[in-house]
């Protein structure tokens, strides 16, 4: 990229109506999270001091809020941590004083009840068999439940999109459950076998624990589980695809203030079309741009020889409105969505379409590789290899894939239209539509062979804006799909993956606070196992995620990404910080409150402006 384009890239206006959907998000000062952390630290240190002075030893000898009998020790006083975080977060959440107080009480009381039930069960077990339950296990369970309570109370009390029923049809739930059960059993047997043998590799990881007990056994189990799923998905993709399959494509490119990059995006689409054995039409959707996006796109389309292109002006702001207009204008049975700042590879169309030889395939995406050279590109590279090149194929094997990145994805038009329109006025419209396509029974997958270059923010401000949207989208998508989570029908996505995504979002929001808490507990208390405490704190950032990242890099055959592991550690820290800020942008209410999103039905083709008025053809 030359100097002029690089300057334009850095100065591009990245904010839009999608940055903070009306009613669903409020602005958050960059000082709010630090103030929250300061308050959290004060609350935590006060409780740690009380425990350290021994004032509560008669009731809580574990020096955490544990009253039942137990065996062994723990690394972090997770219950004290969770309660401290709940109180501090409630003080700085978005909402009225009453709403925040009720929100905090709701969190604290639910968590205390759960902890009391855990300890009562431990007491009952002790009475039955005379052996107390391991404290480490109790603390792990309490911590995981604490994460879950946080996300689900936000989902319940936060302002969220109105739930829209998810149509479930032609599910292969039983096959997915059997696959998950068999692979889980194999992973468990191998993990237990390894635990009974003196393996040096496991011994070196023995003390690498998070939340007082998640050690190498769990790491090994998850590794063995996902490796099996990855292999199954890869073999299945090869069996169900056909190298010579091709069909006409309609490419839709929503563009808002993309003057600096739209020409290159169009030229890369033209190059891919030249290597593809079927016609390709390209529709650039100029979505209320205030720069020269439309004019530059017209000039670039005029130079195309293979692609038949046009520009459609979409006056209504919002990416979903542009996408729905593009779907209505598309003439072919396969619709390609490409973001305006994405440069696809020469073989992207050919490789992706091979998967549509199977008649039930509904949507296929690829792996978004960063362009390189900017400050966040190294960390982003490891992130996408881990998430999209490793976890996504694995989840495909059990029909558990929820979202396909909207930067590049090909839809079967029938599946897209049956699932409904792209949702406007919320974050995560790409995840929402792919979830709905999948729950209709269509096969959705990420083909790890398909690589494309997707823009990465070059400034902290842009990265913050992007990540606040992305992490908030987990709540928005889950709220719109609430019926799927609560439905009596069992699907992997509804009963396992979506709840896990919510819990994991909470865990990430608490990453920086738990580091602070662990360090203060280590420094201020008489820890009986200092080494374990240090490792428990360090594992939050380094631990198993870094080990799995190495595995993902090896499977993706991207050894250069190993050099980016230090950048990834820093990137994970930023990601955790922005997840906390993202939660602070959600308005909290005294009672459940949802917002009906703007109507987003796909307009009839007759509503698309005629070619002579608003479109250009090359």
The tally of structural domains comes to 3
Number of strands: 12
Content-based structural category: alpha/beta
Total helical elements: 23
CATH superfamily of the largest domain: Spore Coat Polysaccharide Biosynthesis Protein SpsA, Chain A
Strand fraction: 5-15%
Q: What's the architecture of the largest domain, going by CATH?
A: Alpha-Beta Complex
Strand order of the largest sheet: 6-5-4-7-10-9-11-8
Uncertain segments: 208-214, 528-532, 605-618
Major sheet, described briefly?
8 strands, mixed
- According to CATH, the fold-level topology of the largest domain is Spore Coat Polysaccharide Biosynthesis Protein SpsA, Chain A
CATH classification, class level of the largest domain: Alpha Beta
Question: Would you spell out the secondary-structure blueprint of this structure?
Answer:
Elements: H1 3-11, H2 32-52, E1 70-71, H3 78-92, H4 97-129, E2 133-134, H5 135-157, E3 159-161, H6 173-195, H7 200-205, H8 216-240, E4 249-255, H9 262-274, E5 280-287, H10 293-302, E6 308-314, H11 319-329, E7 334-338, E8 342-344, H12 348-353, E9 361-369, H13 377-396, E10 408-412, H14 413-419, H15 429-439, E11 443-454, H16 460-480, H17 482-486, H18 492-509, H19 511-524, H20 530-541, H21 543-556, H22 565-584, E12 593-595, H23 611-614
Parallel strand pairs: 1-2, 3-12, 4-5, 4-7, 5-6, 9-11
Antiparallel strand pairs: 7-10, 8-11, 9-10
Helix pairs in contact: 2-3, 2-19, 3-4, 3-5, 4-5, 5-18, 6-8, 8-13, 9-10, 13-21, 13-22, 14-15, 16-18, 16-22, 18-22, 19-20, 20-21
Domain Glycosyltransferase 2-like: 250-416
Region (Disordered): 599-618
GO molecular function: glycosyltransferase activity
């Amino acid at each position: 990229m030359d100097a002029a384009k690089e300057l334009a890239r850095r100065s591009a206006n990245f904010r839009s109506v999608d940055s903070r959907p009306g009613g669903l998000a409020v602005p958050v000062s960059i000082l709010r999270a630090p103030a929250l952390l300061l308050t959290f630290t004060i609350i935590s240190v006060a409780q740690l001091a009380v425990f350290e002075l021994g004032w509560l030893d008669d009731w809580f000898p574990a020096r955490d809020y544990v009253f039942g009998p137990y065996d062994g020790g723990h690394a972090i006083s997770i219950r004290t941590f969770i309660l401290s975080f709940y109180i501090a977060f409630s003080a700085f959440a978005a909402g009225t004083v009453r709403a925040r107080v009720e929100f905090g009480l709701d969190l604290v009381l639910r968590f205390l009840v759960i902890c009391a039930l855990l300890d009562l069960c431990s007491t009952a077990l002790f009475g039955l068999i005379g052996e107390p339950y391991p404290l480490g296990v109790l603390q792990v369970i309490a911590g995981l439940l604490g994460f879950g309570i946080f996300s689900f109370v936000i989902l319940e009390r936060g302002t969220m999109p109105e739930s829209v029923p998810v149509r479930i049809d032609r599910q292969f739930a039983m096959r997915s459950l059997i696959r998950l059960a068999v692979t889980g059993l194999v992973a468990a047997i191998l993990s237990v076998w390894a635990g009974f043998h003196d393996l040096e590799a496991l011994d070196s990881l023995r003390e690498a624990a998070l939340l007082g007990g998640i050690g190498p056994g769990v790491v090994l189990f998850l590794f063995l589980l996902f490796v099996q799923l990855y292999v199954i998905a890869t073999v299945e993709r090869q069996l169900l695809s056909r190298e010579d399959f091709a069909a006409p494509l309609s490419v839709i490119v929503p563009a808002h203030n993309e003057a600096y990059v739209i020409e290159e995006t169009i030229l890369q689409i033209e190059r891919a079309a030249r290597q593809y054995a079927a016609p390709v039409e390209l529709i650039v959707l100029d979505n209320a741009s205030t720069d020269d996006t439309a004019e530059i796109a017209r000039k670039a389309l005029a130079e195309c020889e293979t692609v038949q292109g046009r520009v459609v002006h979409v006056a209504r702001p919002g990416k979903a409105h542009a996408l729905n207009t593009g779907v209505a204008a598309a003439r072919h049975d396969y619709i390609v969505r490409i973001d305006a700042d994405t440069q696809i590879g020469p073989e992207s169309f050919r490789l992706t379409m091979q998967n549509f030889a199977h008649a039930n395939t509904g949507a296929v995406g690829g792996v978004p590789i960063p362009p390189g050279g900017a400050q966040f590109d190294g960390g982003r590279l490891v992130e996408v290899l881990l998430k999209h090149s490793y976890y996504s194929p694995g989840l495909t094997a059990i029909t558990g894939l929820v979202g396909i990145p909207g930067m590049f994805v090909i839809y079967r038009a029938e599946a897209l239209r049956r699932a409904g329109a792209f949702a406007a006025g919320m974050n995560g419209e790409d995840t929402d539509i792919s979830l709905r396509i999948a729950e209709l029974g269509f096969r959705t997958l990420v083909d790890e062979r398909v690589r494309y270059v997707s823009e990465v923010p070059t400034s902290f401000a842009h990265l913050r804006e992007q990540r606040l949207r992305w992490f908030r989208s987990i709540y928005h998508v889950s709220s719109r799909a609430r019926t799927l989570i609560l439905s009596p029908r069992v699907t992997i996505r509804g009963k396992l993956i979506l709840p896990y995504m919510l819990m994991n979002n909470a865990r990430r929001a608490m990453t920086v606070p738990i580091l602070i808490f662990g360090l203060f507990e280590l420094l201020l208390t008489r820890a009986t196992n200092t080494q374990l405490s240090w490792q428990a704190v360090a594992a939050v950032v380094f631990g198993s995620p870094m080990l799995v990242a190495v595995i993902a890099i090896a499977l993706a055959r991207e050894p250069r990404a190993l050099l980016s592991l230090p950048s990834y550690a820093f990137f994970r820290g930023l990601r955790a910080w922005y997840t906390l800020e993202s939660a602070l942008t959600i308005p909290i209410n005294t009672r459940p409150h949802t917002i009906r999103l703007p109507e987003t039905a796909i307009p009839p083709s007759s509503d698309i402006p005629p070619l002579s008025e608003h479109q250009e053809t090359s």
